[in-house]
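Fold it.
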Amino acid sequence: MTTEIANRDFRRPGRGRGLLDVPKHTFLLRLLVDKELQVRYRGSILGILWSYVKPGVQFIVFYLALGVFLDLNKGLENYAVYLFSGIVLINYFGEAFGNGARCFVGNGDLIKKIYLPRELFSVSTIGVGLIHFAPQLLVLLIADFVVGWHPNLMQLACAVVGMCILTAFAYGLGLIFGVANVFFRDSENLVDLLVMVLTWVSPIMYAWERVADKAPEWLLHLYLANPITVSVELFHYAFWYPTLEYEWHVPPHLLSMWTPLAVVIALVTVVVGDLLFRKFEGNFAQEL
């Protein structure tokens, strides 16, 4: 008996294994996702329909301000599809990133009372974001079919890759800022600012060529290396480009260089976030 106990692999109480704990606790993960949805829509009349209302209002405002008043719709065929395909992505990124940055503080009572793998809180924000992303994607697909969408397998694969890049990037940033927010509450205030900046420095409401025409080469390379830029352009390649009747100039080396680089950046973000989480999660309860 003594030998059996001595040979066991013990861990310090209150410390988990980061992402390695998630596959073993899928039931808890589903409960956390359900909890977040119930809390968010408690007392709400529209409920999940808010997933349509917010992007719908954003689309109308941006389309009128940029497409009609600034005439961007004249330079881009099917500008409505171009714009909406970017809006659904940045909304998903903003929700996953923002909720990830606030999840540990927001669940402080649970963290202080019981122990469960705490990275589940961060992963659950991705699940909630995907649930809200699905109806917006459905609207985008309907609009695509209306204007004559004819994608190939390569373009559909690019959409999946773009979604994976954005998910990893949002999760990694959310984890980094979520850990920081436990110790410095100012961190969550930076999230909304970053999302606003990233929205405007990504080709969501304008074509990337506008940056190429005016930015120096080094700034253009930095712009194209942004994982959000890559994800948005991959979505444009999948959902907007197949609706055009003319050849569209994709960013140079989008598939051969910028996409692999964005994958690396997103994965590095996840690794850094996971390392920070493992290092500091043992102090969460006392800090909260």
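The radius of gyration is 21 Å.
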